[in-house]
Recover the amino acids of this structure.
């Protein structure tokens, strides 16, 4: 599995605070068309449980801790988003589950496209079928 962690550029100091940022098509490999955030999720709750056929995302947690489990159908890897400077690139074809680890955690998402329910695969067995058929090969 590729290394999908991103460290945001950060400016500032302890006296004045910090500013972290990223830019479309420069720090992340797509243009951002939608931003949303998830909050007030009970600790240890699980969200996600899907993959996207085309959509790509960057996830970051400006407050708290959220664990993201990525699954490419062959390998699973866990990432802890516990710093506003750390982000995770979720490419198309990665099944993802998110677990809230601290009260008050906020998960932000920058997406490569607008919401489209037809882009989702929400059934794990269907996801595995797509992987087996090579749907996410580079030429697709």
């Amino acid at each position: 599995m590729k290394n999908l962690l991103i460290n945001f550029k950060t400016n500032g100091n302890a006296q004045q605070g910090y500013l972290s940022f990223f830019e479309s098509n420069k720090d992340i490999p797509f243009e951002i068309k939608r931003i949303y955030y998830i909050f007030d999720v009970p600790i240890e709750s699980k969200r996600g449980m899907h993959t996207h056929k085309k959509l790509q995302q960057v996830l970051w947690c400006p407050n708290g801790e959220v664990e993201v489990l990525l699954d490419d159908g062959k390998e699973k890897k866990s990432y802890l988003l516990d710093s506003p400077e750390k982000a995770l690139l979720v490419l198309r074809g990665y099944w993802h589950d998110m677990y809230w680890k601290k009260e008050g955690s906020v998960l932000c998402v920058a997406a490569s496209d607008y919401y489209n329910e037809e882009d989702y695969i929400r059934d794990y067995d269907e996801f595995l079928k797509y992987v087996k058929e090579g749907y996410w090969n580079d030429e697709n």
